Amino acid sequence: MSEHDIVTKAPMEYGKDRPKAKNPVLIEDLTLRDGHQSLFATRGRTEDMIPVAEMMDEVGFWAVETWGGATFDTMHRFLNEDPWERIRTLKRYIKKTPFSMLLRAQNLVGYRNYADDVARAFVERAAANGMDIFRTFDALNDFRNFETVVPVIKSSGKHFQGCLCYSLTEPRMGGEVYNLEYYVKKAKELEKMGADSICIKDMAGLIAPYDAYAMVKALKAAVKVPIHLHSHFTSGMAPMSQLKAIEAGVDILDTCMTPYAYRTSHPAIEPLVMALLGTNRDTGFDIRKLAAINEVLEKDVLPKYKHLLDDSKVSIIDINVLLHQTPGGMLSNLVNQLKEMDALDRIDDVYAELPKVRKDLGQIPLVTPTSQIVGIQTVNNVLFGDEKDRYKMITAQVKDLCYGLYGKTAVPINSELQKKALKGYPRGEKPISCRPAEVIEPELEKAKQEIKDLAVDIDDVLIYALYPVTGKKFLRWKYGKEEPPEEVKPRTLEQIKAEQELIAKAKAGKLVEKAEKKEAPARGERLRTFNVFIEGDYYEVGVEEVGGAPVISYMQQVPAMVQTVQMPPAPQAKAPAPAAEVKPAAPPAPPAPPKAPMPEAVATDVGSGVTLNAPMPGMIVSYEKKVGDSVKKGDTVVVLEAMKMENALPAPADGVIKAVNFKSGDSVPKNAVLCIIG
Ligand code: MN
Questions:
Q1: Model confidence over 489-539: pLDDT tens digits?
Q2: Which residues, other chains included, contact 423 with Cβ-Cβ below 8 Å and sequence gap of 6+?
Q3: How far away, in angstroms, is 33 Cα from ligand 1 center?
Q4: Among the CATH numbers 1.10.472.10, 3.40.1790.10, 2.40.50.100, 1.10.10.10, which is that of 600-677?
Q5: pTM of the entire structure?
Q6: How many angstroms does the Cα of residue 553 sit away from the middle of ligand 1?
Q7: Which of 22, 43, 512, 532 has its CA 20 to 30 A from that of 332?
């Protein structure tokens, strides 16, 4: 009998004094990183982790995941929090339990491969700030992307956990690419690189129980280091897969505290503790301690985050993952993107296109950033492509992937697409085969010179080096050069309570009475009418902007990317939006939400011109041209970031740039006029 075999002893009390198991399953808690990343868009604030931090340190976790993944991006961009400060703060409360972070290898905590000098400095600083375990993965399972960061993890005396990104091309493990032999071979590579443990990183919750069993058994036989299973609940299989992995001898499992578990997150810890109680793989955890932590989370923390939970469905299992093997986070991204573009009705086309795009791009695993790369290119193909040419708008990242800048794909990229994507590619039209970072010029000194005094220390420089646009914005907030906007400020429990009371009042119809006491102003000429459908009821709502600069509205066909428009002459500037914008008020219309109003373009005094419009909502990364510059049709004018991907938007016609309507860092709605070419 092996030490991993489950032996159940006599039933016993679940007190903490029970005898220690011979070979306890070790647990990493993900509540403070992947948990809120999966359920609450990574919006968890440090101040909401502190109330449970000391209690969590007492549980006996093998590690707590506190950093990495999307936290670095989200914190500085949306929460006005210094990412480095979070490690230091939590370390003051969690003193015994090691910290783990998710490191995207040469991608660090961003969405592209950074230069070696930035990668080295980043890992060094993460270790110095208190990170203990570096869970390292590469989206393509190309371990050449580990070659720079691993020696730094090792020389800092830290734990290098190497990941196998678990991916499928069919419903279960096997087939020509992602079969058992593939994973065993990759695991041996990791051990050879000095991995202190190996993690099966099942980011989409695809691993089926018997595949988990077979894989853990095979890995345990092939390598000596501990085997760790990371899975998501998304498909509903993860708790079963965990149990089968335990039977196969897995050493470490990932879980969340109950309020942060399930849905697209991870299995909960408490059922696992109970399931293993009294066996030779007993975790040894005191379930009452876990319950006490949950109570604090439920009462003091989660009311602030509940509104971020996608509760549009009763089911907590995503059937689409079982049908399409698409990661949950990626799916919700796609749905949001389509919603913003008013094209949710194209979702089935997206499902059909996605495996084709993935195959064209070399059957890469779907994990950040490849899930975004495949996802947004799929949306682009569906919205802008046609049967003759699906790839009418190729993102900058797909071009980079075709060049080899992310690494080697599992199977070769479609050569026709590769050729098209690399036409005019600035680094060259011939793809590389070397380690990607070898062609990336050093970036650290350049970043230091660019950010100058706005960066006080190397940690600040790294924020800027990783995220030039939003990082700079954050540093300006941090050092009081600019007032942070309202939406990045934390909300208090009192504010939440006041909001809930308001909603309760509205539901009880009490807000209407209050409104009646106020005399309605006369209807102005800028009044716009919307039809609102709520559960079969239909309302007509008039909306009029009060004050503000006059704006010109005009109809634009969607989703054409660019088009020539006649700018309305000045006298019409105050005309109401065309009536065509409003759906006919004809019940029994289906209770579908009304289409969002067309975004309004800020007008300039240009009589006529060709406009370059935002094909999707996003953030301006940069303008490549300025007012007065001559452009040729097809020249890149604006780089727009949408869904974390950069899109180079070309000039729709030859001409001179007459107006530039936004600046770097501005968020723009779909169809916003980014510039006018005359
Ligand atoms: Mn994950």
A1: 998 888 888 888 887 787 777 765 444 445 566 666 555 555 555 555 555
A2: 429
A3: 9
A4: 2.40.50.100
A5: 0.79
A6: 44
A7: 532
